[in-house]
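Field notebook, page 497. I keep forgetting to write these up properly, so this time I am using the form the group agreed on. The chain and the ligand, glutamine, are recorded exactly as supplied. Prediction of the bound pose follows.
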Amino acid sequence: MANEIHQKTARSLDKVTTDYVQKPKSLSELHAGIISGKTKATELANSYYERIAEINPALNVYLSLTRERALETAGRIDELAAKGDVLPVLAGVPVGIKDVLVAKGAPATAGSKMLSGYHPPYDATSVAKLEAAGAVILGKLNCDEFAMGSSNENSAYGPVKNPVNVERVPGGSSGGSAAAVAADMAVATLGTDTGGSIRQPASFCGVGGVLPTYGRVSRYGLIAFASSLDRVGPFAANVRDAATLLSVIAGYDTQDATSSRRPVDDYAAESDKSVKGLRVGVPAEYFGEGLDPEIRESIERGIDHLRAAGAEIKQVSLPTTQYAVPTYYLVATAEASANLARFDGVRYGYRAEGAETLAAMYSRSRDEGFGAEVKRRIMLGTYALSAGYYDAYYRKAQQVRRLLAEEFLTVFGEVDVIATPTSPIPPFKLGEKTDDPLAMYLADIYTVTASLAGICGVTVPSGATQSGLPIGMQILASHFNEGTAFRAARAVEAAQG
Ligand code: GLN
């Protein structure tokens, strides 16, 4: 009874709006429909454009649409299907792309005014691979400016609303990519994760998201934020589909020297395997102060499900976690300050009007083109790299990064995966943290560690708070062990029913 009353007040205070949440069809259902001719890729694409036209004004998920390109691909798929040809795994699947990845025929803004008017002449490798596998690219998705943020409120084109509850943030920086899947405005999407930008929004919107191992997916055609941390990865409504997408986009690329030559696994098949005997580590440092009690309970329940499915649960320790947030914000800002130097008003996008000298044109273009958070990070990064402070900040951060990576490797000697909450807090209200960048940074505590260590991970829905806000569980695995992470995530997902 008490519980019921609590739920009611929470609901009325919170105005849960689930009108926008809709589960997309699974890849296997879609594939069957396309092969049998029951589903026409062209009609499917058009129905997605209708849904986008209807609800995008409320959610602000898409920044631009690539209708012509989409209908051309869809038409080609329909022709192949009519001929009875063997169709590729993503044939006719409508997908959306985070607007930090370039795609021919669409503007690329990176959520910034700085790139307004920029039309890239080529495709990111991940985008080209999706299309080669038959996917239909619907358009470009909203995100925090240059992928810097955790709430999508740093987009120069306005925030994305969380489809679960429009008063809440969808998470960031890939907020549009997560929201699009949650609201069935795409069957799957691509995002990027530098310090949590796939995992945290996936968790906030109640969908699956993947952080591939550093080097697993090519970064070619990704507008760089922090090159030693940036990863491209998929979002999908279920773990198996996310695994299929990863197999499509992963692999060596001559255009990205950091991409790995290791063969790509059949991750969907890996995800089908049982978790019997799988060793799951639970690190104390991810369950301490600052963790929302409802999230703790939900993750502990998820771990119980893993145990019930035959996994062996072990307590582990990752003590360097306490230094991860400052370390990440030094490394990421230092690299960002270097990467963003190329935006000078000459080569790409925005240029300030009326400057009298070249120097004034550079500085005014940057002043007017970049938003506040991006400027803050360029300044922090420039400071951390400057002659007098390099040793104290940047070098120190690199040393801590190394320690953290070694700690993970030691723990992965004892366990196959590590289970943690994805975020210490549920999706917060729009505007709630915009005045407090430090509070926003601190909430990245559980995701920046894997980013610094280069390891892989998956986030999977593991329930909801009393007021109906999604909770995500993070499953981490060592380098190139994505298949194992998917396996554990499938078991957590299965327990959700
Ligand atoms: N929230 C983190 C940041 O603001 C992560 C961003 C990301 O992964 N792109 O830097």
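OBSERVATIONS:
- The longest strand covers residues 456-464.
- The chain has 17 helices and eleven strands.
FOLLOW-UP: compare against the apo run.
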